[in-house]
Every structure is written in C-alpha cells, then in structure tokens.
Amino acid sequence: MIRACILSDINELTQIAYQTFDETFREQNKKENIDQYLANTFTEDRVLKELENPNSFFYFIYHNESLAGYLKLNIKGAQTERFGDNKLEIERIYILNQFQKLGLGKELYDKSLEKAQELLCEDIWLGVWEKNHNAIEFYKKLGFKKIDEHAFYMGDEKQIDYIMIKQM
User: Average pLDDT for residues 116-139, to the nearest whole number?
Assistant: First the structure.
C-alpha cells in the first residue's frame, strides 16, 4: 500500500528518512561525515519544512502493514536542480534494508509516473550517487539515461551524483 504523507506523519517520516539513508550510505562514508550529514539533514524541523512545501510530495509504502520505505518527489522550485517547471524530480526512493528486493522500489517509481502524468510533466529526472550501482542499474532498466553529473559533498568528501532523465 502507498499513501501520501500528512503533517501528523512527521515523526515517522523523519525516522524512516534518517534510517534508510543511514542503511544505504553509512558503510561507504567516513563515520564523522555521515553522522554530521544525518544530524543536519534529517531533523524534524527540516523534514517538516520539506513536507509543507506545496511543490514536494511524500509517500509512504507499506509491506504487510509495516512501514517499508518512502518516496519524495519535487516540481518547480522545490527541485534540487533547475530543469524547468514541466519536469518531475524523484529526489528519494528509499526502502528499508529488510524490505529490499520485494519490488517496493518499482511500486514507488510507478507512483512517480502516476504523479508526473497527473501534473502533465514532460520528463522525470533524478540524481544518483555514482557508487550506488544497484540504483543506477534499477533506473537504467526503467529507461533513464545519464545526461550530466554534479558534485555532492558528504562532509569533507566530494562525491559525484549522476543526473539521469526519462521522457514521459
């Protein structure tokens, strides 16, 4: 089951955002960098500000009634890069480790397609860390193509995100 997040979900949303990012990236980053990033990025105040943005959309996905992951989509000025108002950004598709390989990421991607069609978006785009090989392959299978890259800083480490896009 997938459902839109509402303001009263802020505690659960902050927790799952923190936990999924930590599970996904801790092993590949310096402890002090990931600790600092998590402490600064996944605070309740910051997540609430994102949730209240009318150009961002959050969704929870459940597996057997357990919260398994979430999706964050952005349009217009909420996008992390300016690709135009007729584009939809998938900023986050995160699934808890225990629910990986169950097709939940694909379900959240399908929700992204549905939202893009509803909003009459021409393209869907995303940024994905160059070392996140599973995610890159997942997006390639869905028809995304790398068009650019940009730097992302995790503390004192410069990392590269691939920018990938798919036409609707």
Answer: 95
